[in-house]
User: Which sequence fits this backbone?
């Protein structure tokens, strides 16, 4: 009986990790309210899970806030670039999609080209904040290294792209799927995504 109730019991370990994911998810959501800080929040989230894997995790609040302050400057620059380029790609895809309806020729080719750029953007997004955690400060080198890692570890990259795209897919589909996704992502979703991605990333970086 004593052994079953030990704090080292897998059940208690699972409950403790679940609580940490929940708290980190809440911290991520709160600190992401100013859109410009989402990059810093992502960096802090990944740093917290990396600390957890390294056995350096003290508490969700302490590890997250320490990482948030540490990566604020560099991650903000990276996020602004990612955000602006992502918005531009969405605009281009929407514009070209409207222009090529019922037409052939150049607009279709342009659409394919922009679609390829969007895929590259998603691949870089999977790695750029974890690369930042390793001490890289030059944005250009971060992008090159992220793309290199994405191509070299394409099987993991594919899985992360799919996982990261779930909330976008739910938003596009709407209806019951979106209604089910909202409470999940308000409690565990973003934290769980980063937790799973960290497992893949530690095999890649």
Assistant:
């Amino acid at each position: 009986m004593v052994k079953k109730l030990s704090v080292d019991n897998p059940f208690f370990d699972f409950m403790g990790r679940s609580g940490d994911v929940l708290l980190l998810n809440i911290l991520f959501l709160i600190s992401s309210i100013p859109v410009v800080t989402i990059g810093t929040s992502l960096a802090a989230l990944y740093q917290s899970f990396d600390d957890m894997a390294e056995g350096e995790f003290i508490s969700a609040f302490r590890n997250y806030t320490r990482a948030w302050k540490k990566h604020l400057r560099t991650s903000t620059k990276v996020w602004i670039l990612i955000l602006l380029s992502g918005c531009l790609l969405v605009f281009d895809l929407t514009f070209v999609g409207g222009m090529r309806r019922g037409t052939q020729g150049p607009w279709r080719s342009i659409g394919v080209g922009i679609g390829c750029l969007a895929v590259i953007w998603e691949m870089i997004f999977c790695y750029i904040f974890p690369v930042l955690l390793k001490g890289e400060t030059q944005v250009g080198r971060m992008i090159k290294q992220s793309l290199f890692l994405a191509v070299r570890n394409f099987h993991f990259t594919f899985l992360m792209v799919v996982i990261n795209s779930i909330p976008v897919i739910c938003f596009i589909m709407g209806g019951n799927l979106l209604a089910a996704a909202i409470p999940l992502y308000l409690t565990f979703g973003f934290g769980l995504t980063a937790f799973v991605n960290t497992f893949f990333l530690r095999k890649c970086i």
